[in-house]
Amino acid sequence: MQNEPDLRLEEMVLNMGPQHPSAHGVLRLVLHLDGEMIVSVDPSIGYLHRGFEKLAENRTYLQFFSMLSRLDYLAGFFMEWTYVRCIEGLMEIGPPPRAEYLRVIAGELNRIISHHMAIGDYLLNLGAVTPVLWTFRDREDVLDLLEMLTGQRMMYNYARVGGVRYDLPDGFEEQCRKFLRRFPVMIDEYEQLITGNEIFLARSLGMGVITAEQALDYGLSGPNLRASGVAMDLRRHDPYSAYPELDFDIPTGASGDSFDRYKCRIEELRQSVRIIEQALDALPGGPVNMRIPPMLRPPAGAIYRAVETGRGEWGNYLVSDGSLRPYRLKMRDSCFVALSTMPKILPGHNIADVVGIAGSLDLIMGAVDR
Amino acid sequence: MSWGLSFVIHLIAALVIGLAVPALSALVFPFAVRRLSGFMSDRLGPNRVGPAGFFQPIADFLKLLLKEDVAPLKADRRLFRLAPAIAFITPVLAVSVIPFSKGFTIANLNVGLVFIVAFSSFTVLGILLAGWASHNKYSLLGGLRSVAQMVSYEIPMILNIIIIAMLVGSLSLNDVVGAQGKIWFIAVQPLAFLVFIVAGMAELNRTPFDLPEAESELVAGYLTEYSGMRFGFFYGLVEWGNASIWALTGATLFLGGWRGPFAGNPGWLILKVLVLAFAVIWFFATFPRLQVDQLMNFAWKVLIPLSLVNLGVTGLLIILLPNSFLPPVAAFSWASVITIILLMGPVLRKALLRKRLKLNPGTELGTSQS
Q1: Has residue B255 got a pLDDT over 60?
Q2: What confidence tier does B215 reach under pLDDT thresholds 50, 70, 90?
Q3: Among the partner residues B41, B288, B355, nearest to A199 by beta-carbon distance
């Protein structure tokens, strides 16, 4: 048996992305595979880097505005909201109450379309073709509402320092209420198709488990954190805007697997419907914005403000030197954190779970790379 | 009639029908898939080319014909070009033993069932060659997956074909249809029919067993490097040709073949094929995809034991009651199916949930007001 050659066993290195149907934009994962089993994962980011933080330093406060919704392009209003909260915080002004309610309505509509995308895309990654089309059908209704409200389907440019750009247009309230009446039925329909499906259960239960400690250590936020059982929601724990006056629940999972993350998002859709209904009911009168100087010069200082987006905490750290331009704008993004958990949670899973777990974490590369 | 003349006539008939069946399936099934899955996912589907979009597959076919036939630089060119042709052997040849109506079989082989089973393996060879010759990691993974999957699922498939052969006492498909004069075998052996459907989905690489070409994971699996008409061969002629071979076999074995009310003719067979194809499309629009390990477990731990038990009991009943074995076989099979449907579904789901509860107590998603 001396001449028997050694059987050479080696790991296969698979470059998944940045051009891949499930790359969520341009995510690149360097996978080391043992057969179909994942040995290690090395996420490689930067393919969508546009240098937003530096661009902010070269533009006046208002010139930078139109770039904000290009960050997390599926829920752009949250970025605008955070940015105006920073400037308002530095200037120590607060928008009129009606504007706060309109921001809540726009924000929750954004949360709905963001979760639509998350759920549909997750199921598409698992190989189910129908749910994504159902969620896109309903997403279209919300996009219509947002178009009525802001004039745009995706890049809203709706928030203003000291208020919002437009008041509610005619007919918005009826159309919105019609949607809110119909939408819970649609959520039940998603659940009928997806939640009880045994193949979906087999693909999601116990997959990509993130324990509560791990989640807190990594700094996860949003549905990904709540699925691990930590009932942390900035809308409740760092109350801002009109949220203290609105009643809503924070869904939490317990095991932190893909199923819990999916289920949390489904539940948050229902809560968003509740919030918008209350906001429409309690909508105060009055102006929707206030007079601010056309050349904005916030007083020198530094401020951190965060907003609970559909994907977690979006924070801006804004340093002003009292000039026309921000001295420094640092953005804190939750998808980046969720992405950084992948090397920890993926090894030991199957190659099919890479896209499944990535889908359940709801990554959006526009926000990760900035 | 001389031997030579008979050979020529049979050859021409075999070529005409053998080429017409895959070509017609490549024309009708993609149209049906797009329109029906479009209907199921609440959208229109292609409806511009021809009446209700019926000529869309022809337009696609023409486009594929006009496209450049690209082979990757490092591919094994000869195998790369040979693979679609090898895979195409199955639908062309297997159709020649199918009885289309009384006395209308191209080759009335007395081992028709063995012939179909034997030739259905050529697709695996073609797919493996395609995956290997492409010199692409996704293709290779897809090819390996498809071999593992098709070889595993061929066993329950063959076991259930043997059950029917035992009921008939012959391997000739004409005898199979002849034996179903009074009652179709779906009423005698529903268990075998269900296993045949499930194993067929896996053999055909259809959802929920479409792992070899899992778009969201493996880009397009073994098809990744194919373009132009070679892609068309695999996607249209081989896949859908195989689907119609599977449906023709299923209709012949379980649904009485060309038999039907009024007069037995090929129309009934085509109708039954369309009903089975509808099931394929329905699954496609409903299910996510299984994982490789779950797929293998399902074949080896569920389908094969189930088929073996069914085979053993059926054989035992045939030996014990040689003259009137159909009623007891039917009773056993129906009882098993009803037991499985009534008992196993809820039990499985509960087992899944219990497993989950044990992992992490209190996993039921609750809403906590903190």
Answers
A1: yes
A2: low
A3: B288
Please tell me the pTM assigned to this model: 0.81
CATH fold of the domain at A51-346: Cytochrome-c3 Hydrogenase; chain B (1.10.645)
Half-sphere exposure of B127 (CA within 13 A, CB side): 32
Residues of chain A with CATH 1.10.645.10: 51-346
Burial of A151 (0-12, 13-18, 19+ CB in 10 A): middle
Nearest-10 crossing angle of helices B77-94, B122-133? 160
Please say if the pLDDT value at position A2 is more than 60.
no
In this complex, is the C-beta atom of A37 within 8 Å of any C-beta atom belonging to chain B?
Answer: no
Domain ranges of chain B: 2-320
Q: For A106-122, what is the mean pLDDT?
A: 90
Predicted-complex ipTM score: 0.76
Our CA dihedral for B261, B266, B268, B273, rounded to 10 degrees, sits at 160
Residue A160 has pLDDT above 60, yes or no: yes
Q: How far is it, in rounded angstroms, from Cα A47 to Cα A27?
A: 7
A203, B288: Cβ pair inside 8 Å? Answer: yes
Q: Which residues 196-255 of B are in CB contact (within 8 Å) with A?
A: 207-208, 210-211, 214-217, 219
- Cα–Cα distance list, A238 to A93, A313, B23, B195, B316 (Å): 18, 11, 64, 56, 72
How far apart, in whole angstroms, are the C-alpha atoms of residue A128 and residue B208?
8
- The pLDDT of residue B92 is 80
Q: What is the pLDDT of residue A276?
A: 92
The pair of three-digit structure tokens given for residue B226, joined into one six-digit string? 């194919």
User: Token match 């919300």: residue?
Assistant: A142
From residue A105, give the alpha-carbon distance in Å to each of A149, A154, A175: 10, 15, 13
Give the separation between CA B246 and CA B279, rounded to whole angstroms: 12
**B37 contact residues in A (CB cutoff 8 A):** 129-130
Confidence of residue A304 (pLDDT cuts 50, 70, 90): very high
> Within an 8 Å CB–CB cutoff, is residue A152 touching chain B?
no
Nearest Cα neighbor of B329 from B105, B164, B108 is B164
Residue A73 has pLDDT above 50, yes or no: yes
| CA dihedral over A148, A152, A155, A160, signed as positive or negative | negative
Q: What does the angle CA A145 – CA A331 – CA A84 come to, to the nearest 5 degrees?
A: 50
Contact at CB, B349 and A197, closer than 8 angstroms: no
Of A127, A251, A350, Cβ closest to residue B288: A127
